[in-house]
Amino acid sequence: MLDATDLIAAVATPQGSGAVSIIRLSGPGLLAALDQILVMRGDLQKNPRSLLLGRVKGLSGQIVDEVLVVYFPAPNSFTGEDCAEIQGHAGFIAPRLVLEAILGAGARLAKPGEFSQRAFLNQRLSLDQAEAIAELVAAQSQSEAILANRQLAGALGDRLRPIGQELTTLAATLTAILDFEEPWEKVDQAKMAEDIDHIQQGLAHLLTLRREGRAFREGLKLVLAGPPNVGKSSLFNALLGQGRALVSPRPGTTRDYLEGAVDWSGIRVELVDTAGLWSDSTDEIDQLGQERSREQMERADLIVWLRDLTNPNSPAAPISERPTLTVWAKADLAPKIDPNALALSAKTGQGLSRLKEEALKLLNVNYERPPELVPNFRHQKALEETAKLVEAADRALKDGAPPDIINLEISQALNALGQITGRVMTEDLLIEVFSHFCLGK
Ligand SMILES: Nc1nc2c(ncn2[C@@H]2O[C@H](COP(=O)(O)OP(=O)(O)OP(=O)(O)O)[C@@H](O)[C@H]2O)c(=O)[nH]1
Ligand SMILES: [Mg+2]
What we know:
The chain has helices at 30-37, 94-104, 114-121, 127-138, 142-152, 155-179, 189-218, 232-240, 284-298, 352-362, 377-398, 403-421, 427-434; strands spanning 8-11, 16-26, 38-39, 52-57, 63-72, 83-91, 108-109, 220-225, 258-264, 267-273, 302-308, 324-329. The chain is α/β, with parallel strands linked by helices and 441 residues long. It has three domains: 8-125, Probable tRNA modification gtpase trme, domain 1 (Gyrase A, domain 2); 133-214 and 374-422, Four Helix Bundle (Hemerythrin (Met), subunit A); 220-300 and 302-362, Rossmann fold (3-Layer(aba) Sandwich). β4 (52-57) and β5 (63-72) form a beta hairpin. The longest helix is centred in the middle third of the chain and has 30 residues, at 189-218. Magnesium ion binds at residues 232-233, 245, 253-254.
């Protein structure tokens, strides 16, 4: 995984139809390999960062594509190594023949994420910036793309730097005390406690950003659930704006759950329509459907529980650990019972925008003010670990523990924090981050 001494190549664009395909290369011996396969008038070495026209000689010796080539000399390239991109024709065949030619000239097929990994190892990107590339490519809403771009620009690193510096200063102070055997009583411990408190605030703030901003980064999963025939599928269709789910007056219409995504103020919301719960049907398939409904409810960011305004015995939501919002369906058919109740009608559209507002409010999503920065799940874990260690240092200090104990917690906290940007790095961490990447990135 850490080996970065050979020439790698991969097709960086999706396979299939399209106009252009890009093949990316990085590593030593790049110019020599290109020289073997390219027939061209221009000189890449003399014209870095310019597009030059050329033709590619395939393994058969025949010309297999007409291309534009650009050469980025080390160290000012994406990976920090000698890099090149070959823009050829798209399709299934031409890119493959060009790639084969390059592999025949001594390059090795890159592993997923290997270009970004080299960029990280050569300090062209921090680990969180490399992750931002994968997240930008995977983004499914505008807010996800904007957040990924901010992270790519270093927004998270900028927030982490002062916290890291404060921890480093603290560790240095403690080390000096230990090295010079300064009497612990003479040290300004109150100031130290203040510094630790400030670090804790910084970490807590980042974790709050994660909690409040997660929806902007990863979207939300809303599961529509309730008794049979209450109007779940009708609501699903109304929210989706299309007649996806089957609707009928017969209870038990929906059996498999259905998913559909909508955009709510820039947030990707995945709606799930489920089979009605508590039908007295003993049918095996109905039972299986209800099992699926319960599974979906357990995975929901929010359960939207439907009750029927036309049926006074319509059951209340079951107790759940997941946040639940109760709504009264079929509002066009019956007067509202409770003035505070959220009544809606899939038929007239009444209450649908209020459902959206209440759902986001319940989940603490302030869609009018999207966060500037949202740590991802991996960052959250590292931040929590750091916070736990700083908390332990704080307790040790207050309990009158000796400085070496406090120093130990602080240095471990520094290590935990350093995993976010990759300042502290293990091979496992590299595998964890880069194995999610696609080929050619
Ligand atoms: N008037 C009116 N009828 C509705 C409304 N919502 C649903 N219905 C009717 O209620 C019946 C059941 O609707 P569905 O959407 O299939 O209900 P469901 O909860 O998905 O039912 P199952 O899948 O069987 O559990 C259908 O006849 C719908 O036309 C509504 O807001 N107003
Ligand atoms: Mg249904």
